[in-house]
């Protein structure tokens, strides 16, 4: 398992497979590189190089006491890209990773990135403010974090079925659900709470308005973790040139439940290159 060191001394774990044009996978909050087990083999078989990062406090990376703000996390992503000298990148980001990808593009530029895919991403802005009335109340965040601190395993377990939208017939075994909860619990509790908090408070609307590379937005209509009216549909309006896909029966865990469809949509998007595909809402 390779590691590299960023400017504050934190050692970050990453995985690097294959050759060809690189696909850089940016993981969800509380998850790490292993979450992409249904995507990596597919893209390797189609001739791509797959690069995956464990963000700080997650997976096998160091657990420092600081650096969980979005700017630092996007800088960590930039450091990996520069460490491997990657170009012609497709960024594929899930959930909170979408904010890190958006901030990377606005903070470090699009020179190395050819296209970006936002999957069930928690952008553009979750917090309710005067100029963001569609957002969620601050009290909801604090209540969630209080539950999280009281019984973190229960918090994840209570949300697991909704995460995969199993009530809509998605076939996910109890063993798989348990495995994904275990992966979430592997994140440092402090890191998980800080990333959750910073993602809630961060306004990504200016970042998304600056995206000029081809973009793909995929969101599940049944997503209980990132409500589509607060996230995916609003992101579409901020990136009007994006290819947009809604999966009617998908929840937040669409990378598992709809892996075949998702992989095909990402591949078609990558191959189209210019993002000229027709929207299919």
From TrEMBL:
<feature type="domain" description="AB hydrolase-1">
    <location>
        <begin position="22"/>
        <end position="258"/>
    </location>
</feature>
<protein>
    <submittedName>
        <fullName>Arylesterase</fullName>
    </submittedName>
</protein>
<keyword id="KW-0378">Hydrolase</keyword>
<dbReference type="InterPro" id="IPR050266">
    <property type="entry name" value="AB_hydrolase_sf"/>
</dbReference>
<dbReference type="GO" id="GO:0016787">
    <property type="term" value="F:hydrolase activity"/>
</dbReference>
<dbReference type="InterPro" id="IPR000073">
    <property type="entry name" value="AB_hydrolase_1"/>
</dbReference>
<dbReference type="GO" id="GO:0016020">
    <property type="term" value="C:membrane"/>
</dbReference>
<dbReference type="Pfam" id="PF00561">
    <property type="entry name" value="Abhydrolase_1"/>
</dbReference>
<dbReference type="InterPro" id="IPR029058">
    <property type="entry name" value="AB_hydrolase_fold"/>
</dbReference>
